[in-house]
Amino acid sequence: MRAYDFSPLYRATVGFDRLADLMDRALTVDAGAPTYPPYNIEKTDENAYRISIAVAGFTGDELSVEVKENTLVVSARKAEEDAKTYLHRGIATRAFERRFALADHVRVTGATHADGMLHIDLVRETPEALKPRRIEIARASDIEAKAVEQAEA
Question: What CATH number did the domain enclosing 83 receive?
């Protein structure tokens, strides 16, 4: 795998640090990336998404969902258990922390925990200032008429 050096990009731009960091993160392959717990990301509407995480064995009190600087952090810590003797332990209830990078203007609207699944709902809200808008094109005759009205007044 090739490693790319983005330092020239940092020197030649102002205000694009986040974009460069995102590209750097995307191109960095982390062989030790955690695979626990498994999760799905689905698009539920044009501007709505849902992250579903398998959290079997955890209660709602043991789960934490936080948003910090465009990063969604989901973590869980199992409460102390009594000493149990397992003949087979196939349900992993180890502590975890999973991070998801959120795009600009994406916010978390809620989280639900049911049937061993944690569902986190997100919505993308584009501000009015960033939405496309139609510009009215004035005719030259309208501009001349306004100029004549203003001159007469």
Answer: 2.60.40.790
